[in-house]
Each structure stands twice: as structure tokens, then as C-alpha cells.
UniProtKB/TrEMBL annotation:
Protein's name according to its UniProt entry: Glyoxalase-like domain-containing protein
Membrane spanning residue stretches: none
Positions of the Glyoxalase-like domain: 10-187
């Protein structure tokens, strides 16, 4: 049987907020995102989502008394810790991971209750399959199969005060960007990884790009790194495509969020984004 090579498309990103869900959700609303009501996974974690056209952002943490569940997740540093790929077939993705010697655990199924915009009670069901944890420093990368996409992508949840339409860039900072990109070269094929003149490497992932870059690049483009950055490979920054930078600026002013204006972008430092640097552009 032929096992297809997955096509890289960003499904969502995960920001680890651990026991600070209230603080993180209030912050991201001040940043101009509409967030879902708090969801509770059958595995014990809880979340808020900012849903976009093709991908979404997840604030993932736990409520009081649940810190022992999914304890491995909370060992990661606060901030950006999850790079998640779309799949229509988690079992096929797992077989591909096995073939490439990238596999971790077998696919896992879980769900969370959801109230749809019209008030209907529903459930969001997923199957995920993770790359071997040892291959992904300071975080996780996995495939996510949405069995009920209508319970995630609803038009009413895709309208944000800052007019963001999609995550457009996911940045992994590393002393050796080529080495950090290597696992994804094995995963998707070497021809998917493009070398840039600035020394970075880029993987096109649907509406987004995953960029493997030096700390100097991140400092120049985003103005900051996670406060606890220690030189090890680290998921560190996000870019967003917005339809209206004036709305981004208005949201940040209303939310009392410091920012830096550039000719074609607005940048929020990592310390203002829950240890994640944020860049908004047209």
C-alpha cells in the first residue's frame, strides 16, 4: 500500500498558558482577537480559540485542580509551543511518521463540548498524531484531523476587531536554522524547504509560512525574543495578515498594549504577547 507524503498546511498554533488562562484570554482579547468561550477537553486541558479563515490560534492551559492531567504539556516554557498540521487521515499520517522514523505515540482521539453561535449544543472531535517528542525542542508538532470542522470554523467566530484573517508566519528561532528545519525536511520532503538569502529557511504551509531563523533575524523583524530564551531552538513569534492595520492599531490602543509601528506592519513585543512576539501586516 502506498502511503502518501503529507502536504504541509498549518492547522493551528498552540500557546502554552498553563494555569494562567484568565490572564492570557484577557490579554488576547485586548490584542483585538475574538476568542471562543472556554472549552474543556476530555483529556483534562482547557482552551480558548481565535478562529481565522484557514487556521487558528489556541490558548491552552488548565483550570485549578487539573494541573496533574496532561502534565507533560505544562513542562514546556510559557508561550508558543505547538506547531500543528492539517490532515484528513491521522492513521495515514502516523504510518508516514513510522516510515520516516519520526513517530511518537499512535493517533489519539478526544473531544470537547461546544455551543455553536445559534445556541445549539455540539461537540468538536479530533484525532491527533504527534511527532516524536525528542525531535521537537521546547514544544510539540503534530497532525490534527478534524472530524467535526463545523464545530471549529464558524463565520461568526472568524470576525475579529483587529481584522486578522489568518496566521501568516510561524517563527522558530535557532542557532542552527538548517538543523531545526531538518525534521520537517524529513517529514514533508527536502524540496519543501527553501533557503533564503538572510540565512533563514522557509516552509510554505497553506496560508502560512514556517520560518527557521536566527535570533538576530527575530530581533530585527519582531524586536524581541521570549524573555527566557536560552539559545536552544524555540518557537518564538507569529505574524498575522489583517485586512486593516488601522483596526489593529485601534484595538491595541483600546487594550492599552504597547506596540511599534513600521511602514507596512505593527509589531508587539514578546512580553506583551504572553512570551510570543506578534507582527500584524496587510
Amino acid at each position: 500500500m502506498t502511503i502518501p507524503v503529507p502536504v504541509p498546511v498549518l492547522d493551528h498554533v498552540v500557546i502554552n498558558v498553563a494555569d494562567r488562562l484568565d490572564e492570557a484570554s484577557a490579554l488576547y482579547r485586548r490584542l483585538g482577537f475574538q476568542l471562543s468561550e472556554r472549552g474543556h477537553h476530555t483529556l483534562g486541558s482547557s482552551n480558548h480559540l481565535a478562529i481565522f479563515a484557514e487556521n487558528y490560534l489556541e490558548l491552552l492551559g488548565y483550570e485549578p485542580g487539573r494541573g496533574e492531567q496532561r502534565k507533560d504539556l505544562w513542562q514546556a516554557p510559557p508561550g508558543l509551543t505547538g506547531l500543528v498540521w492539517k490532515t484528513q487521515d491521522a492513521e495515514s499520517a502516523y504510518q508516514h511518521l513510522q516510515r520516516q522514523d519520526l513517530d511518537g505515540d499512535a493517533p489519539a482521539a478526544f473531544h470537547r463540548p461546544v455551543t455553536l453561535p445559534d445556541g445549539e449544543a455540539s461537540e468538536a472531535h479530533f484525532r491527533t498524531v504527534r511527532l516524536r517528542p525528542a525531535l521537537i525542542p521546547n514544544g510539540r508538532s503534530f497532525f490534527c484531523q478534524h472530524d467535526t470542522p463545523h464545530a471549529v470554523w464558524q463565520a461568526a467566530w472568524q470576525r475579529h476587531p483587529n481584522c486578522v484573517q489568518n496566521i501568516s508566519e510561524f517563527v522558530i528561532v535557532a542557532q542552527d536554522p538548517a538543523l531545526s528545519a531538518q525534521v520537517y525536511s524529513h517529514l514533508f520532503g527536502a524540496d519543501r524547504i527553501l533557503a533564503c538569502q538572510d540565512g533563514a529557511f522557509v516552509l510554505k504551509a497553506g496560508a502560512a509560512k514556517v520560518r527557521f531563523a536566527s535570533a538576530a533575524y527575530a530581533q530585527t523583524r519582531f524586536g524581541s525574543l521570549p524573555e527566557d530564551y536560552d539559545g536552544a531552538a524555540r518557537m518564538s513569534a507569529l505574524s498575522f495578515r489583517s485586512d486593516d492595520l488601522a483596526k489593529v492599531k485601534a484595538s491595541l490602543l483600546l487594550g492599552d498594549i504597547p506596540f511599534r509601528e513600521e511602514p507596512e506592519a505593527i509589531v508587539v513585543a514578546a512580553e506583551q504577547g504572553f512570551n510570543v512576539a506578534l507582527r500584524f501586516h496587510l
